[in-house]
Amino acid sequence: MCEGHSHHHDQTQAESVEMSPEFEISRRGVVKAVSALAGAAAIAPLGAAPAGATTRVEVAKQTTNKWKPNRYLLAGDHHIHTMHSPDATYTPLQQIKNGENNGLDWLVITDHGGTAHQKYAIDLISPEIAAARKQTSVHVFQGLEWNVPGAEHATVIVPPGRNTVDVLKKFEGMYDGSVLADLKKVTRATSTDGEPMAVEGLKWLQTQVQSGTIPMALMFANHPARKGLDSPHEVRAWRDTAPGIAVGWEGAPGHQMAAHPDVQAALKAIGSTTINGRGYYDNSPGADSFAGFAPTASENPYRTYGGYDWFTARVGGLWDSLLAEGKPWWITANSDSHSIFGSSLQGTHLVGGIPGNQDSAYYNTTGSYGAPVDSGAPINLYGDFAPGAYSRTIVGVAEKSYLGIMQSLKSGNIITTHGGIIDWADIRVTTDTDKQGVTIGGRTVAARGDSVTASITVKLASVVNSNGVIPQLKLVQLISGAVTGPVTDKDTIFAPQTTITESYTVNQTSGTVTFSHTWKNVQGDFYLRFRGGDGNKVDATGNPMMDVMGNASPWESLWFYTNPVFVTVLK
Amino acid sequence: MVAAALSEISWVAIDPGDSRLSPAHIESVIRSRATALGITIKWLATNPLATGDARYGFLIAADYDLVALKAQVLTELQSETSPFEDELIAAIAGKEQGRLISFPSDINVFTKHTPLEITSRSAIEQVVAVGEELPADAVIETYGYVRPVLYEGKITLFVERQYNGEFAPIEKANPHECCGGAHAPY
Ligand SMILES: [Zn+2]
Ligand SMILES: [Zn+2]
Question: What percent of chain A has a predicted confidence (pLDDT) above 70?
């Protein structure tokens, strides 16, 4: 039914980045199709469908992400650093080859925004990325890790094209929180007085798309709960300001190796008392944190749960609260690869000779550390995976092209996996009214009283992961909740009506498994999503446990999460 | 150990408003000015949880007249008396919200403790493990850094399990700033 992780690429498309006239024409064609689709989704809010609109054609008009038996599944990573970040190690080509060797089909280079990056690094990396594209079959996007003013970091993705670098550079110069702080236009990169600048930045990107300067732009918030900076009202403001651009966040952060006991041992060996959290999630509330995320006796939003960010891992938490509004908000999983556990390469200009501890004063005047050098021995202080070695953002695409990949990211046809826990998953949700149904990230329609069936087909892991084993999926959970419409309090954190609706046990070790659930006599709008895991470190309620500081091997709790499907009940 | 009647303490608030100064810098100014004036700071608190408008109020309490100290600190920070002073003080005095940097204690914070040792020998009223019951014989390694918060009306030290089975406060002295130039805090 599905192709699985295809490692074959559309060479023509990858090479046509050189902007041949044909490409421009075909690109414009694609752009046209893309905007028509996005427009349809944007003007058809849930529950707003006209009564009696149930002919096949009319149903088709109201659904998005229609289920189809064949499509490509492309694994990717939208959060990767290079030696052009003040705290990362490798050349762009090294990271791209790392991703290629781990089976990725697409990736986004996202060095940190900042004054030196904007001034020096962009101009250095742009030709390096262009040259690297000729040496790989991977779709390589040039992006940015934006310091969102007043908030956390975010990936910004712009497809390759004539104006890409110019747009990225202008955007960073005007709207990066770190640049703005250096210019004393905001108190700090993360201080709340920067919040309007984040919204302005998204509006500016929107203008670049509307004017045709660039065909698309996407923004995903990175490690959103890490420091409690991404308050619910900020996330809602981004989404509602630029619904075609600000489309989601990392459901799971990178740095997944950080709390592995081997890293802990390496820290101890150099006399450090640092205890890493998984994902380097070891913070607590600070001056710019949102008060509602304060730790309580029962949970700590500043930690990961089964490797996932609390915003996503908590059933009925902030992600569900956004989805319960009936609006799209998608999750991804990425490496945030800076320095890879066990790699013998170390960056130049080290402080105190400690790998990973580079002298940013040097970077600040150059925008690059230059290529790393081989230390001759594996470095276990590093807490990151190579791109594709652990975290995967798998998109179902209609077309293997840069815009095809971005369109699928925008439409939410995305699942996330850790440690190769599954090869892939496919969801189909059908109703009595919409018999073809829709897939991940889609919206289907039902008449009042219809039955609605959600099925998930999972291809169990068939590939040895980078820990040397074929992991075993043990459980799958269906999570669903009512769509209750836009919230009046923009800082709403919870969606108490969203629960684990059904849990399934996986009794086989290979092949595919399918689980279905039917809602009978549906009366109101709702949404559903799935997740599943290896069954390790799950509490009595079926939720992932909080990852233990300094002892959270990423291989001992593996999860996949899908994005949701919305069901609109015609009134 | 102490009654911890925060409402009976005379607090002053120093709220740098939209100052570009880091909390660590503000704290160091408060401490150096206090030393110069011969004032011993017994209680020092922040209110990091009341933000929404970039406030980071520092609150000081001591058995001295703090008017001179406050004036000097505000002058050095080029700041003014905060319009939120009463609010910040009320949140601390009412034990609603806040985080303590200094508080009466005779625990040697560089050693390991049981929960009872911490509550009987410092102003901390309860030690709470996030997400689990804290065993009475739990070993709590503070790494010399203890920042209790006001939670459910009590001065509370939140701890979490760590790699060796011991517990540690959830607020770390050197968390990962990660990304954008900060050195890896090994
Ligand atoms: Zn980041
Ligand atoms: Zn990053």
Answer: 90
For residue A526, is pLDDT > 80? yes
**pLDDT tens-place string over residues B145-170:** 999 999 999 999 999 999 999 999 99
Judge whether residue B90 has pLDDT over 90: no
CA distance A166 to A170: 6
Domain B6-102 CATH class label = alpha beta
- Is the pLDDT reported for residue B57 higher than 70? no
By Cβ distance, the residue of B20, B51, B163 closest to A550 is B163
User: Which residue in chain B is spatially nearest to A262 when comparing CA positions?
Assistant: B163
- Are A99 and A155 within one domain? yes
Cα distances (Å, whole numbers) of residue A161 to A21, A173, A215, A362, A541: 12, 20, 9, 31, 49
- Domain holding A273, by residue range, is 77-344+382-390
The ipTM value here is: 0.89
Chain B residues near residue A280 by CB distance under 8 angstroms: 176, 178
Cα separation values, B57 from A281, B23, B33, B84, Å: 25, 9, 17, 8
The Cα–Cα gap between B114 and A480 comes to: 43
> What is the per-residue pLDDT for B86?
81
Residue of B nearest to A152 (CA): B179
- Going from the Cα of B59 to the center of ligand 1, the distance in angstroms, rounded, reads 32
For A142, residues 6+ apart whose C-beta sits below 8 A from its C-beta are A108, A109, A125, A126, A129, A158, A160, A164, A165, A168
| Phi, psi (rounded to 5 degrees) for B100 | -100, 130
Q: Is B46 helix (H, G, I), strand (E, B) or coil?
A: strand
Mutate to test the interface with A, among B134, B163, B172, B177 (most CBs of A within 10 A): B163
What is the number of alpha carbons within 13 Å of residue A247 lying toward its C-beta? 25
* Upper half-sphere CA count for residue A119 (Cβ side, 13 Å): 11
Query: Band of the pLDDT at B181, cuts 50, 70, 90?
Result: very low
A123 within some domain: yes
CA A9 to chain centre: 22
In single-letter form, the type of residue at position A83 comes to: M
Question: pLDDT digit string (tens) for B123-136?
Answer: 999 999 999 999 99
Does the CB of A275 have a partner CB in chain B at under 8 Å?
yes
Give CATH 3.30.70.260 domain extents, chain B. 6-102
Q: Checking DSSP bridges between strand B154-161 and strand B167-169, what pairing results, if any? A: antiparallel
Q: Determine the Cα–Cα distance for residues A530 and B167; give it in Å rounded to an integer.
A: 34
Does A460 have pLDDT greater than 60? yes
* CB contact A37 to B (< 8 Å): no
Note whether A537 contacts B: Cβ–Cβ < 8 A. no
Backbone angles phi, psi at A53, to 5 degrees: -85, 75
